[in-house]
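Figure 3 (text version): structure tokens given as input.
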């Protein structure tokens, strides 16, 4: 963590953190459906930032940067920042 030089020689700074998959969210929703007799077998579900299907850990991110991460999350949820669905969407 800290000072970093990319392959093209540019200086940068980065922080390594983790992305969390909200498996608890998925399990809870599927268990509720099963309990209601509406288990959605055979269907494909995608869990996103909305509803806490995925999140980022704070880790060793300083408070100023964490605030920026949280603001970016809010902008993504509000549709102000578009996140690519796949790597091919980045080109």
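Below: residues designed for each position.
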């Amino acid at each position: 963590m800290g000072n970093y030089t990319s392959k093209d020689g540019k200086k940068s700074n980065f922080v390594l953190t983790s992305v969390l998959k909200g498996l608890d969210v998925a399990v809870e929703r599927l268990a509720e459906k099963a309990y209601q007799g509406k288990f959605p077998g055979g269907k494909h579900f995608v869990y996103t930032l909305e509803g806490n299907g995925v999140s980022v850990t704070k880790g060793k991110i300083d408070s100023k940067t964490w605030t920026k991460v949280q603001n970016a999350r809010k902008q993504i949820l509000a549709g102000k920042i578009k996140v690519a669905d796949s790597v091919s969407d980045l080109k």
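The chain has a mean pLDDT of 84.
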